[in-house]
Amino acid sequence: MEGAIHPTDGSAFRDCLSLARKNPYVLRLAFSAGIGGLLFGYDTGVISGALLYIRDDFKSVDKKTVLQESIVSMAVAGAIIGAAIGGWLNDRYGRRTAILIADFLFFVGAVIMAAAHNPALLIVGRVFVGLGVGMASMTAPLYISEASPAKVRGALVSTNGFLITGGQFLSYLINLAFTKAPGTWRWMLGVAGIPALVQFILMLMLPESPRWLYRKGRDEEAKTILRKIYPAEEVESEIQALKESVETEIQEKGSSEKINLVKLLQTKTVRRGLMAGVGLQVFQQFVGINTVMYYSPTIVQLAGFASNQTALLLSLVTAGLNACGSIVSIYFIDRTGRKKLLVISLCGVMISLGVLSAVFHETTTHSPAVSVAETDHFGAYTCPDYRSAGSSGAYWDCMKCLKASSPDCGFCASPIYKLFPGACLISNDTVKDTCRKDHRLWYTRGCPSKYGWLALIGLALYIIFFSPGMGTVPWIVNSEIYPLRFRGVCGGIAATANWISNLIVAQSFLSLTQVIGTSWTFLIFGVISVVALFFVLIFVPETKGLPIEEVEKMLEKRALQFKFWQKRPKPEQKGQSV
């Protein structure tokens, strides 16, 4: 990264394919480290399906929305701590060591979750997994970035994003595979330990980041690795540029002092880099992506699809689209540029969230009515709140039935057609089975709707636009925007901000849908997307094809290139000769 400027007019995707033939060692480094992204993605996706069956096994979880949110978000809380510690670990002990520790924690967490006999132990396992995911989330792209030739850096870091989405897709396949197996969710969560073990073994056989080694004075080790990464004609210029970069840092006033927040904020380039990097990570979460990934099957049920298996199968489509979007990102990231991808991505996300908000508004305001005759058919199972409503019960519909809380009630659809008036009954396993024996559908999360397929189209559009841009670009920008001396700490700060934002969204989504409704919840995410678009236009620089020195100059001068669609004049060809 510290070396010469490489031409980016051609496709870095083709360069990656060429690299695979000429130097497979680089791809081996990238994909081995990228398994950290697979772990990240698997954990994000697997809990969405496992939660459906955890609710069935633990009635306390089914009855308490807060407990469901806690099972999801405690992994995020662990990831916050993991990302914060990960920044320090990366700078002190190296990128490779941080990944090994992350794998160990993830494996331990997977074993605890699979063996959990109560919600409390399950939450403990989620915290361990979160610690591992947090470390891996900021270390994997950093390791790949520092072990990649500059001209394919973006594409190779994008492989980490692809493996994140690939992990999410894999998790839905695993969820579907174990829906009929005894101990469903235990298998879903326990299988996560396998990729962690595989990466641990692979990383034991791989070297440390050459740039971290050089920074620590282990010059010969760094040079040996760089000679394996770069073509022979580029090695010496890369070594020279890296040497100059480290020497410049050593000459800085206070370079021997410990890095602290005050030191970071006093450095103009770091301060502006953090504003862009942290801002992108925060907005990545606040536009709602992990509500879709953590709660995708639940959202599908809210849209009117009753069965767990159907919800998981339809959620698999969104996970597949997410993985495809990451492949698109690999192709376009070094061809189109980071900023343009972000702008296109956010424009599509705004439209998609608008569609989802409108669809859920129609779904909740046009739900099937509750029929006295249909309800009386089940006799003693009638919902107490509906019975006590008397004549006003004539105005009850499915949504009103599902909001009853003393006790909880469910909607048993008409056997003729699910949109016809149905029955409002007590919600328990006996009533659910009785309803289904009559060839009826049983609803407790959402109501039957003719607009359900539009909600799926909205979700699909959201993923199609989010994945290639906001899904991968924030991680790429954060892997290349900071000076080498501060890169580990700054990357840790940005990753921590991402996980804190993730925690806020994960812990509040179900509660928001209950308090203000699903439609307004998605509308709020849409408004945040508008704010994110203006943030990108104003604060995020285009870093495509630039070495770190040139990115620093851009931040120093605040040359943020508002007209991002225009080609930049080529900077001076610094560092092309030794």
TrEMBL record:
Cellular compartments annotated: Membrane
One Gene Ontology cellular component: plasma membrane
Transmembrane portions of the chain: 29-54, 66-86, 98-117, 123-144, 156-178, 184-206, 273-296, 311-334, 341-360, 451-477, 489-510, 522-540
Membrane disposition: Multi-pass membrane protein
Record bears the keyword Membrane: yes
Family membership: Belongs to the major facilitator superfamily. Phosphate:H(+) symporter (TC 2.A.1.9) family. Belongs to the major facilitator superfamily. Sugar transporter (TC 2.A.1.1) family.
Name the record gives this protein: Inositol transporter 2
